[in-house]
Here is the input.
Amino acid sequence: MTMQNTTTLQTPVAPARGRLRPLGQREVRITGGFWGDRQRVNGAATLEHIQSRLESEGWLGNFDRAAAGTLPEGRRGREFSDSEVYKFLEALSWEIGRTDDPALEDRLRSVVARVAAAQEADGYLNTMFGRPGQRDRWSDLEWGHELYCLGHLFQAAVARARTRPDAEDGLLAIAVRAADVVCAEFGAQGRDGICGHAEVEVGLAELSRVTGDPRYLEQARLFVERHGHGTLRDIEWGRSYFQDDVPVREAVALRGHAVRANYLAAGAADVAVDTGDEDLLAALHGQWDRTVARRTYVTGGQGSHHQDEAFGEDWELPADRAYSETCAGVGSIMFSWRLLLASGDPRQAELIERTLYNVVATSPAPDGRAFFYANTLHQRVPGSPADPEATSPRASSSLRAPWFEVSCCPPNVARTLASLDAYVATADDDGVQLHQYAPAAVRTMLADGRTVAFDVETDYPASGSIRVIVREDAATAAPWTLTLRVPEWATGAHLSVTSADGSVDERDAAPGTVEVRRAFRAGDVVELVLPMTSRLTAPDARIDAVRGCVVVERGPEVFALESVDAGADVSGLALAPGSAPFERDGRLWVEVIDRGGEDAGWPYQASADESAERPASRAVPLVAYHEWAQRGPSTMRVWIPAAS
Amino acid sequence: MTMQNTTTLQTPVAPARGRLRPLGQREVRITGGFWGDRQRVNGAATLEHIQSRLESEGWLGNFDRAAAGTLPEGRRGREFSDSEVYKFLEALSWEIGRTDDPALEDRLRSVVARVAAAQEADGYLNTMFGRPGQRDRWSDLEWGHELYCLGHLFQAAVARARTRPDAEDGLLAIAVRAADVVCAEFGAQGRDGICGHAEVEVGLAELSRVTGDPRYLEQARLFVERHGHGTLRDIEWGRSYFQDDVPVREAVALRGHAVRANYLAAGAADVAVDTGDEDLLAALHGQWDRTVARRTYVTGGQGSHHQDEAFGEDWELPADRAYSETCAGVGSIMFSWRLLLASGDPRQAELIERTLYNVVATSPAPDGRAFFYANTLHQRVPGSPADPEATSPRASSSLRAPWFEVSCCPPNVARTLASLDAYVATADDDGVQLHQYAPAAVRTMLADGRTVAFDVETDYPASGSIRVIVREDAATAAPWTLTLRVPEWATGAHLSVTSADGSVDERDAAPGTVEVRRAFRAGDVVELVLPMTSRLTAPDARIDAVRGCVVVERGPEVFALESVDAGADVSGLALAPGSAPFERDGRLWVEVIDRGGEDAGWPYQASADESAERPASRAVPLVAYHEWAQRGPSTMRVWIPAAS
Here is the structure.
């Protein structure tokens, strides 16, 4: 695979092989709807907000100080603050690819110039290490985050190279010089070390794909294989925190720090695919299965522990202490997407959808200038209104905050939204697969030269109609296959194909995927109708934290009970026996009863006879989880106790 | 109150006033049984084990280095390591008071001499601060623990002064000189500061009681009142961590770090009682009520968060991530005991009992040489056998560990067990109150000179018979009142009074207290019979984490299901519908069904019809919670799901 090849793909992930080929920004364009709105806010507000914070926090200024030779004096931010600048550059690159905004182009070039000026003569780049008065380079692999930061630099350079291959702004060259330093230090003949925070692996793998230089893939492979051999020092929470406890190919589930775990798994998937390592790929599929079956919240969120931002054990999924870091959601999408490309399994697309709607969409405020870092599923105490100027600890409030001391999440959301077009559809030799449903324009060429072009019209998830309108005849009238994903919850989905000539072909569509293969003509319409009725969902009996509870879902969206609507704290509410959610005035409602009341003094008493008189029920509207905490301080719960 | 007065009481707490007067070691002696066994192991093994670790970890050596003037070179341990030496001295003092062991006396004097040699010329004492190359004294009130360490020094000196007032070993003088430094620095004209870890308050209050010097009580009062005014820097978890968020008299519940919260509440109770501050005392009673009703585990354990070792919000009581630090249990006993002395409320004695049996008794291994730091209520993954030589992180294993990097718990258990005789009974003007049931000899003099002397015979909690055998006639045949506590769970308790002449008086005894007032004669026997049948206990509907579960209790003991007995992991087990615990072969058993099985892929599915065929049930024995993890690595759960 050459540089020419992968820079033609405007997508964050471009594997050397696999079941599906991703379609990038030049081939898929989201044109509106739920995600189009969020992309617009991201481009119009969030990117400016992030740059303003990177300046005011001094994290961009650190590069200027490096260039001026005045460091370490005045350096601000944590060890990993450089990485936020790189994620911002990645987000800008995708946004420029998406919109061609010249103001953003100027902004990017200006930041790249400041980064370039900070690079050391030998290619090393980090504002925290290596200068007189700073710690030595690579002297703190556990916590220093040097390789982690470079991994984000590489992803930014890859995004730029794929969206503006002829830009000559120098970002790719900066990345290549830094990558060469990494290979010299940590190559097969070099130091047997890994970074305490995985990320350099995905960065190196994509850099290899963009540049065609196999050394970077080999370096990624070395880092992946070195995990699990205890080269990092042990810590209170164990080496599982860094995934340095068990080799990647021997692990049975993701574990430890949830962002690290997903980033590493994503990098390992890149290595497995590009090196043809089927054993490693199979191990990663097994880890994904187990993690989804036993260690994932109903929102798609991952990470049960505040203490170490980590996965819990199997079935350990507390709602009230859910950490479910926004970045772990982003990492889960990175990992799932790579497996999807490799295998074509629609379950991975479904987890991505669930995570997008209930984690990624939940984090930013409607104005794009405040964010959730952690995403609890049960808020017990109303938070204080966030100070729009304040920098917050990472997970202390029930309200979105403008910035964090560890501010990984805002730029992670920004780069994900800006590149989201590239997660909508894929192609194989015979056609195109739609994985996510949004208003979109799709146009690509299959391997044999057939052009595929269609628009998607939908207001999903508000309703379940997804219409694919073919815009060009299949070249030489050759048939191709349109594959549509039918979510697991969409029992009773229905497909109709209306030909340009007016004939209609209808059939049921079972969960999984549904295919339409024909010599498509311009004007042909394929409509998939997903049933968008609300549903009550119960947890596996082994998930202790939400036993006896149900969650209301509709389509890919999880709903919540919020005190703003309930008129009281939600801690004593339960679903009225036998009741089901219903729609009224455009909202979902449930009947609840109140089981609060006076304290018992000691809250553990003889098992009570439940035949006592039941309090009257009342109807309370629900809120989509991604819309909670937008009306001021509140308490909230996703899982609603089911009164027995 | 003069020094003479309080040194006659061999008890850790000797308030100036209150509803009840504590009976100390000279008045109450535990003579065997459940607690007598543990006291014996504590004296024979634990104290030696602790000293050996204090030596090998270098924490005692720090004092030698201080004396030699070689610090900071070679100093070992955390900021608070001095306090473990002081808690060890306190434990030794009580054990000497209890047993008069000359070997322990030598050991204590040797350690006191090393501490004395480390004290600075002006009375300041801490091995971590104030020397050239160390941070300045009092320069880190948030984390430095200087006042915290001195609080433990004061408690040790008080224990020694009360058990050996004529010892002349110098420990009390060391404490007085250090307390004078504290008063000079932090007095009304001094620095407006508090310690990030409460403890100095209880220490100063008792030191005031022992010495009769009112300055120390006033200093304790100042520290109590200064809490809640934000003099400490804010931290990620908020100032509630240090109880510096809300003034003590305005708080509604204990919050923040659970050990700090209880120690502060205990010190505040001392101040409220001795200064006659009824408002403060009422606030503390309210906090106790709310904390017990909403923030306490069924074991009596407190603290829901690993991250900050803190109380959670109301109803936030996860079983699997229960922190329930052993020291928080000790702190809860300290706080409850002070309120009990002030008010006479048997609910405080009941919480103490629950905490003793299910937290304090759970921590040490049967050999007294390994400990739980945290006390989970649900172990999901078997731990690795503890290395008997290794020092562990504080809460990482499912198995007891010999020592911890933060090793507050072992000496805290040791001092509690060594002083336990002083928590058994109290006196008022009219008689004696028995709060805890253990084989014991009680002999005291009431205020008007009447002698009360009796033995307690019981094998409680193995059975529920508590026999009080009067050993001396009431002087001048004057009547006195024996008050016995009847636990809340003891519905159907029965009391009989058999006079020395053979006549019998019988009656039922409702939960609360039962009184027998008569002119007791030697040979009179009062027998309280508590019903020791097992019971199923359910949680308040607002405790989300254990909804749909029950716990098996018998008497004051909580029971657990352990994989060693269940023959499999306990994660999929549920109580068979309609079944009740039963006794067989001297153990408690339950019928369980297995609800585990194949993973569903995605663990959230449409609410299932529960009419599916139910798996066969089988009988599994339970283990007393305090005896779990004594047979190797296991999984365990206290709360058992009740299959609906």
User: Anything to note?
Assistant: Residues 33-56 of chain B form the longest helix (24 residues). Residues 1-5 of chain B have pLDDT under 50 and may be disordered.
